[in-house]
Amino acid sequence: MHTGWDDTLKAKAARIRLIALDVDGIMSDGRLYFSAAGDELKAFNILDGLGLKQLMKAGITVAVITGRRSPLTEKRMTDLGIPHLMQGREDKKVALQELVAGMDIAPDQIAYMGDDLPDLPALTFAGLGISVPNGYWLVRQQADYCTQAPGGHGAVREACDLILWAQNRLDATLAPYLGKPS
């Protein structure tokens, strides 16, 4: 168990059926790189990718809501098998509400992970708001949990582990890697 995971946080994370994530500053370190030709480059953390796959395998729906449009983001989400990608969405709370409207998922069953002001309405709407230490101070202050790992450096994996732990699924998820039966 992570030292910052208490009973209140566990109770919130135990209810999660869907996690929605921002990209820049959460799945990446928030920096944008451009080549001389104008091509955009981003770095995604492999730890986060496996964590999201483990969540999906455990039956948690994963969605990405981002204000920017990026072919790199689309490729990464396709590679991970993430079924819900909403790009170019500045009003992330509205996007999140649209996403769950037909899913029979209540706000307290949603986790939202973001780092900046456009994420704040969605983060406070969700039952579990998660931010990162390199996020904007007000977002960190309003979040239910701020990861130890910075955005782009395993923060998403930490959030995935939190949810799996709270739902008593983390040990079974890790068991095959430890040579134990799940």
From TrEMBL:
* Enzyme Commission code(s) on record: 3.1.3.45
Q: Which residues bind substrate?
A: D24
Q: Which reaction does it catalyse?
A: 3-deoxy-alpha-D-manno-2-octulosonate-8-phosphate + H2O = 3-deoxy-alpha-D-manno-oct-2-ulosonate + phosphate
Tell me where on the tree of life, at the top rank, the source sits.
Bacteria
Question: Does the record's keyword annotation contain Metal-binding?
Answer: yes
One GO molecular-function entry: metal ion binding
Which Pfam family, just one, is annotated for this protein?
Hydrolase_3
**UniProt entry tagged with the keyword Ribonucleoprotein:** no
The residues that the entry says bind Mg(2+) are D22, D115
BP terms from Gene Ontology? lipopolysaccharide biosynthetic process
Q: Which cofactor does it need?
A: Mg(2+)
Keywords annotated in UniProt: Hydrolase, Lipopolysaccharide biosynthesis, Magnesium, Metal-binding
Q: PANTHER family from the xrefs?
A: HAD SUPERFAMILY MEMBERS CMAS AND KDSC, N-ACYLNEURAMINATE CYTIDYLYLTRANSFERASE
Question: Quaternary structure?
Answer: Homotetramer.
Describe the task this protein carries out.
Answer: Catalyzes the hydrolysis of 3-deoxy-D-manno-octulosonate 8-phosphate (KDO 8-P) to 3-deoxy-D-manno-octulosonate (KDO) and inorganic phosphate.
Family assignment? Belongs to the KdsC family.
Name of this chain's protein: 3-deoxy-D-manno-octulosonate 8-phosphate phosphatase KdsC
List the source organism.
Answer: Marinobacter excellens LAMA 842
Lineage of producing organism = Bacteria, Pseudomonadati, Pseudomonadota, Gammaproteobacteria, Pseudomonadales
